[in-house]
TrEMBL record:
It is found in: Cell inner membrane; Cellular thylakoid membrane; Membrane. InterPro entries: SecE_bac, SecE_sf, Translocase_SecE/Sec61-g. The keyword Thylakoid applies. This is Protein translocase subunit SecE. GO terms for cellular component: plasma membrane-derived thylakoid membrane. It comes from Leptolyngbya boryana NIES-2135.
Amino acid sequence: MAKKGESALEQKSGFNPNEFAKETKEELDKVVWPSRQQLIGESLSVILMVTLSASLIYFVDQFFHWAQVRVFG
């Protein structure tokens, strides 16, 4: 004998594109989207941090290259 929860699962099996689209829209309506000012500010912060990190890696690499040339000729 099937339990109550199992009969409900059996009826929902299968993919329904219309239901998927409806549920997706409902979930996207719950998202709190950032304001334009917040989006620009956080994007600039990310770009700045990536630039600083890449520059640091570049300068450390150049230092080790310089040291390698000095040591090994």
